[in-house]
Amino acid sequence: MRRTPGAYVVLVDRADLFSLEDVSLVVDGRRILDGVDEHIHDGVVTAVAGPSGSGKSTLLRLLNRLAEPTSGRILFRGTDVRELDVLELRRHAVLVPQHAVALTDDVAAEVRVAAPGLPDDAVRALLSRVALDPAEFLGRRPASLSGGELQRLCLARALAVGPDALLLDEPTSALDPRSADAVDSVIRSLVDSGLAVVLVSHDVVRAGRVADDVRVLHDGRVTARGPARDLDLHHELMSPPADGHVHPADDPRTHGPAHPQHAPAPPGAPTTDGPPDPLHPPEQP
Q1: Is 128 buried (19+), middle (13-18) or exposed (0-12) by CB count in 10 A?
Q2: What is the dihedral of CA 137, 146, 163, 51, to 10 degrees?
Q3: Rounded to the nearest 5°, which phi and psi values hold at 27?
Q4: Would 261 disulfide with which of 40, 146, 169, 180, CB 3.0-4.6 Å?
């Protein structure tokens, strides 16, 4: 569904992309996530905001089984993720890490990392889709790119497998404001073309600007949820409810607005073993 800038979309007919049912994660006696019940809609940007250590990046990793919950279950389009082939799941929902990491020494080869047979015109189309002019960037080395350009190249690499959703871990945290704005613009354009995005951010102002729906985490619990336009994000981030109850701005299952990077797991967190996955390179130190 495409929209005009400033328009709002009512999500009464939106299917759930992910459903989390009483999801908890305990690592070395510490509760990282605590009874999370959430519904993440398809075709929109959902931001997970919260202070450092609140469980944001861990939640993102659970969605495509880069970590496993201690209890509860996660559904992808109605199917328990444990019933899905893990690599297939990770191609439907691709996680782009916080720190952009190039895996090759050529821009075109980088786009083809997980899709080696991708034809030249498709590579050019993907670069254009993330606002990298093929005439300028084809033939360049990723090491020569700015931080924002490299982040967008990583988005193109993720898009090459034709995912249904992108999982973005702090996609703009290491960028200057101009580069961050360029990445945000690409995110919105991707969602306008039908993709779903779940992003993690500690920058509530920027998250509110790019997101449709927002979930606020404190100490592993969702303390606020709703359309970005209806939440006082700064207040929700700085002032978690003393009673520990969720403060909904709206019913996350029925409404949501539309308006104009893979952190390391906590030490000891359970992870899913499997064959090497080119879409999820190891973190840089």
Answers
A1: middle
A2: -170
A3: -130, 120
A4: 169
Total residues found in the chain within this entry: 285
DSSP of the chain, one letter per residue? ----TT-----TTPPEEEEEEEEEEEETTEEEEEEEEEEEETTSEEEEE--TTSSHHHHHHHHTTSS--SEEEEEETTEEGGGS-HHHHHHHEEEE-SS----SSSHHHHHTTT-TT--HHHHHHHHHHTT--HHHHTT--GGGS-HHHHHHHHHHHHHTT--SEEEEESTTTTS-HHHHHHHHHHHHHHHHTT-EEEEEES-HHHHHHH-SEEEEEETTEEEEEEEGGG--HHHHHHS--TT---EESS-TTT--------PPPPTT------S--TTSPPPP-
End-to-end Cα spacing for the chain = 40
Task: With beta carbons less than 8 A apart as the criterion, state whether 58 and 33 touch.
Answer: yes
Q: Which residues are CB-neighbours of 257 under 8 A, at least 6 positions away?
A: 8, 9, 212, 213, 227, 228, 229, 230
Identify the band that residue 191 occupies on the pLDDT scale cut at 50, 70 and 90. very high
User: What mean pLDDT do residues 213-229 have?
Assistant: 88
